[in-house]
Amino acid sequence: MLIPTATLRAMPRIAQLSRLAPITVRRTYATSRPPRVLVTGSLGQLGSSMVNTLRAKFGRDNVVASDIKKPTDVQRNSGPFVYADVLNYKSLDKLVVDYGIDWVVHFSAVLSAVGERNPALGLDVNINGFQNVLEVAKNHRLRLLSPSTMGAFGPTTPKDNTPDFTIMRPNTIYGITKVHMELLGEYYNEKFGVDFRSLRYPGIISADTPPGGGTTDYAVDIFHAALKDNSYTCFLKDDAMLPMMYIDDCIRGTMQLLEAPEESLTQRVYNVNACAFTPAQIADEIRKQFSSEFKMDYHPDFRQQIAETWPHSMEDNAARRDWAWNPQYETSDIVAVMLKKLAPVYQNHQVVSQMAAETAVAQ
Ligand SMILES: NC(=O)C1=CN([C@@H]2O[C@H](COP(=O)(O)OP(=O)(O)OC[C@H]3O[C@@H](n4cnc5c(N)ncnc54)[C@H](O)[C@@H]3O)[C@@H](O)[C@H]2O)C=CC1
Ligand SMILES: CC(=O)[C@H](N)C(=O)O
């Protein structure tokens, strides 16, 4: 029997009033089979890790990866991959129908630095692309997870322990488009019952895929530069404190929110916090763990102005309470894992081979 959305939405309250056990509302798929998930922007920094995790959980063929870039052979052979431009509503619509999609993880976006350089592109992809995805989610009754960012906050937002609900007046194209996304997602949830979910990531650090043109990219670039040249020129100032997170925490948290029962969500957009550091602090940690000779200098550019408008840390009690958000990686853990994962890539470079020789002599 097809139950109208309005009835479904009212059910928990009806159950409560008649003192019946609360009814679990499942609106996106009716069988016990795993959900079929479409990931947009799957070749970006976060997309490929998310696709791997989703496939491990729901099965290779239940996760359709998509992007407008060409995948590597490994990416192409690891499961279904399709070309999908989020600016083209009809092709998204067709994809959802052809593959019987239940959930969309929407990762296509233009990040903060690229958005400031090319505002028209940022507006187009982040606003029109998101609107297309949201319409498809509405028309096919899909669950939609689309991440937001600490960049949705702005210069007048309280900087420390920034709460979920506060002043949001960003002054970057990226931030403006993300506030638009959050509000429109909430609107579609309230008006049309779209199961929209979002979380505000800090800067994400990963050794697996290069970052896509953001203000926090330095915190990935620095490891490659350390291993290659034992020095790095940072585009932010030494004291630019920003919240950061390791990719494994990011993907685990995203899966937790994606899979959370709808009735456990008390809001649609959640802050998630993990750790925070300045460029000078991470350089010190690299000196401690890798090479005391590591040299860092600073040539701040336009990204410093962006960083100055973002929080130093975010308060994330609601995420911890509603879907058990619990990050594992502190700054020192991130430095250790990044150096460990990237060292083999640079093993033939002088810095790493010299360090290995010194370690062997010391032992
Ligand atoms: N990486 C980070 O530190 C953070 C990321 N986020 C958010 O997470 C999501 C994923 O970010 P990343 O993977 O880092 O971004 P990314 O820039 O690495 O990847 C974005 C992907 O979107 C694709 N794309 C661009 N235009 C497209 C179009 N018209 N149609 C389809 N695909 C298109 C690109 O080809 C790229 O593969 C974004 O919403 C971003 O705002 C939020 C905060 C931090
Ligand atoms: C924090 C983000 O959203 C992203 N990494 C960026 O720097 O643009």
UniProtKB/TrEMBL annotation:
It catalyses: L-threonine + NAD(+) = (2S)-2-amino-3-oxobutanoate + NADH + H(+). Pathway: Amino-acid degradation; L-threonine degradation via oxydo-reductase pathway; glycine from L-threonine: step 1/2. It holds the Pfam family Epimerase. GO terms for molecular function: L-threonine 3-dehydrogenase activity. SUPFAM superfamilies: NAD(P)-binding Rossmann-fold domains (SSF51735). It comes from the Eukaryota. GO terms for biological process: L-threonine catabolic process. Its EC number is 1.1.1.103. InterPro entries: Epimerase_deHydtase, NAD(P)-bd_dom_sf, NAD(P)_epim/dehydratase. Residues 37-272 form the NAD-dependent epimerase/dehydratase domain. Gene3D superfamilies: NAD(P)-binding Rossmann-like Domain (3.40.50.720). Belongs to the NAD(P)-dependent epimerase/dehydratase family. Catalyzes the NAD(+)-dependent oxidation of L-threonine to 2-amino-3-ketobutyrate, mediating L-threonine catabolism. This is L-threonine 3-dehydrogenase, mitochondrial. It comes from Linderina pennispora.
